[in-house]
């Protein structure tokens, strides 16, 4: 760990020979080509036009790598030293965001441009480390190419991903986010916030024991979260509906269900009954407001209608709990 933080065991860039600089450039171009192909593979199913952008960028990196190998063969022979970016102190690193699924389109395009800027700076510094005319020329040409490629994602995007397709892809990405996370999470939050109102407030007014009320609220919230999570994950595998991973949807629903119930259960850790009940009532107000906001923000439900539905339903359940608790 310390070696990664402080660079112990790594070579300083200034200590590299011309052959090692060429070897580093070759391995870097190879890695970048693989990263672009990983981006393309991650986008191909849902965003085929954007995948073409990164296929083309990978081909560009292959061309750079081939030119560097030919130069190395002419100057130093067939054996290329094994040196990679992680062996050089201060050399730029690539965060493994190409392993994350799903890939965000705009984030990937920004990352691609950042990769090209880093490669440009490397070639500029590498030129300073060599005196051979042919090597300097190739490194200079590659630096110029990388500098012009800072907007390669956008230039290729104009060809493969016109603005209307980009808008369509962003819409599709947002829709997938809503289907996989927002809808299950909202359903869980509504269930956890509303359905636990009656048992928690019924227990509170029936016992006027804050600790017992908290335990009932905790068990109701956790139990509802487990139930909602398993139900969401089990009833739809997402393949036909397009709603995404059942595991992600189950976690979103289960966690938000538990959070919704715990919101007005936690105040009963306060030992004074009326203080705890007042705080719980305030929390319920904010929970219902949050549900109405999410419905309006992501589900495009008119805010007044969402507020009316949520407040009316919550008020009825709360009243039922209080009446039952006082019976």
TrEMBL record:
Keyword NAD among UniProt keywords: no
Coiled coil: none
InterPro entries, per database record: Ccc1_fam (IPR008217), Ferritin-like (IPR012347), Ferritin-like_SF (IPR009078), Rr_diiron-bd_dom (IPR003251), UCP035918_rubreryth/DUF125 (IPR017040)
Subcellular location: Endomembrane system
Domain Rubrerythrin diiron-binding: 20-156
Keywords: Membrane, Transmembrane, Transmembrane helix
Record's bilayer topology term: Multi-pass membrane protein
Family annotation (Gene3D superfamilies): 1.20.1260.10
Bilayer-spanning residue ranges: 276-294, 306-325
CDD domains reported for this sequence: CCC1_like_1, Ferritin_like_AB
Major localization class: membrane
PANTHER family cross-referenced by the UniProt entry: BLR7895 PROTEIN, RUBRERYTHRIN SUBFAMILY
This protein's name: Rubrerythrin
């Amino acid at each position: 760990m310390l070696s990664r933080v402080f660079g112990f065991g790594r070579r300083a860039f200034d200590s590299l020979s011309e052959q090692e600089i060429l070897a580093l450039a070759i391995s870097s171009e190879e890695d970048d080509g693989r990263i672009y192909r990983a981006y393309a593979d991650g986008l191909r199913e849902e965003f085929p036009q954007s995948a073409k952008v990164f296929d083309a960028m990978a081909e560009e990196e292959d061309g750079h790598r081939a030119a560097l190998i030919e130069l190395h063969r002419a100057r130093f022979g067939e054996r290329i030293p094994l040196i990679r970016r992680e062996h050089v102190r201060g050399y730029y690193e690539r965060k493994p965001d190409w392993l994350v699924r799903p890939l965000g389109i705009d984030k990937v395009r920004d990352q691609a441009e950042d990769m090209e800027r880093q490669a440009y700076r490397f070639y500029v510094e590498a030129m300073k480390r060599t005196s051979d005319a042919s090597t300097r020329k190739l490194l200079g040409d590659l630096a110029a190419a990388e500098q012009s490629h800072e907007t390669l994602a956008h230039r290729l995007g104009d060809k493969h991903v016109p603005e209307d397709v980009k808008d369509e892809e962003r819409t599709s990405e947002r829709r997938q986010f809503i289907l996989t996370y927002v809808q299950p999470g909202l359903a869980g939050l509504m269930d956890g916030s509303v359905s636990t109102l009656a048992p928690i407030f019924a227990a509170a007014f029936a016992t006027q024991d804050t600790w017992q009320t908290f335990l009932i609220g905790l068990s109701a919230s956790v139990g509802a979260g487990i139930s909602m999570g398993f139900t969401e994950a089990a009833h739809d595998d997402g393949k036909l509906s397009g709603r995404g991973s059942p595991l992600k949807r189950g976690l979103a629903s289960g966690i938000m269900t538990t959070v919704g119930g715990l919101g007005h259960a936690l105040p009963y850790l306060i030992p004074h009954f009326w203080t705890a009940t007042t705080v719980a009532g305030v929390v319920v107000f904010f929970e219902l407001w949050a549900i109405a906001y999410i419905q309006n923000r992501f589900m495009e439900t008119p805010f007044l209608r969402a507020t009316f539905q949520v407040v009316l339903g919550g008020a009825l359940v709360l009243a039922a709990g209080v009446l039952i608790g006082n019976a």
